[in-house]
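TICKET #2291
ISSUE: user wants both folds in one file
ATTACHMENT 1:
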Amino acid sequence: MAEHDQILSDAEKEALAMVTAPPAEPQLVLVVDDNPLNSEALALYLKTKGIECVIADGAQAAIEGLKKEPRIGLMITDLRMEPKGGLELIQEIRGWADRATLSIIVVSGDTDVNEAVKAMHLSVVDVLLKPVDLGHLLELVRKELRIE
């Protein structure tokens, strides 16, 4: 008798969920660099690949953006920024209850091994050196945002 207790089949439930559930808004990538040319170039590249981006000119702007925009699902940040560096930014984010698990990719032109290790200990996805292999970066972004 238990199999007759269901009014809708699993297929019908799935179809109904697709009709009634609002479509999920795409996640955004936050590109952080204190050099606007770098952040704009990277964001433009990702946008040409169909990935929505927002730009933050430095760590403080990134903090403000993360607090205002809940759709940010990934952050790409430089390490060497003034006045607050990328490692400090990542450490602060890791302390937030609602953003502690944010996916973060580090892109830096001048990183020593010690900084890279510190970043990896903060659970970043990867540390990429400039000039960045854009194909590899795109793979990482798509994987983290679960885009096929």
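ATTACHMENT 2:
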Amino acid sequence: MGRRKDQEARRAELGEAAQRALLSRGLEGLRLKDVAAEAGVTPAAVLYYYGDLDELMYETFQQAMERFCREREQAAEGLPDARRRLAGCISSGVATGPDDLLPRLLFEYWPRSLRDPKAAALDSALTERQVAVYYGILVLGESQGHFRLTDSPRLLAASLVAMEDGYQMEILAGRRTRSEVLAALHAYARVVTGYDPGEETP
């Protein structure tokens, strides 16, 4: 049992080192020795826990995705009013700035999905989980009488996520601020639901 805990702790340490190395060098320039140096171990020590660098980066992205989705889901849970859920969901999905580590980590890994079916499947799962959160909020808001949806909730949910992804890159590149992106998303939400999430909910 003690050995298993030690191995889990070491894998967690390597995952954190991989995140730091990825954010520092980018995925295309990343080498196994970079992660090893960040962790303070030899490349052979990294390979004791992972078959290769791709396996380590896949797990790193998977864990980052889980954290991101869980935070968004928790932002909506426990709020009975769909208007507050919508405002919280939008807020939780927008980066604070270029140095917001979790969304930056996700976008650093994203290009891999263009060539790697396994990475593409994981990225698709990330998108679907976010769409599902918005879908639930939109359906709830319509049933509560707060939203007047202009199209199917599934389509509107997917559009909100797509807009977020595009604007997120603008924030991470330093071309837009968080407040500008929130204003744009609130404006779209107002058009398609009849409710402005930028307003204070009574």
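RESOLUTION: both attachments delivered.
EXTRA DETAIL ON ATTACHMENT 2: The mean pLDDT is 90.
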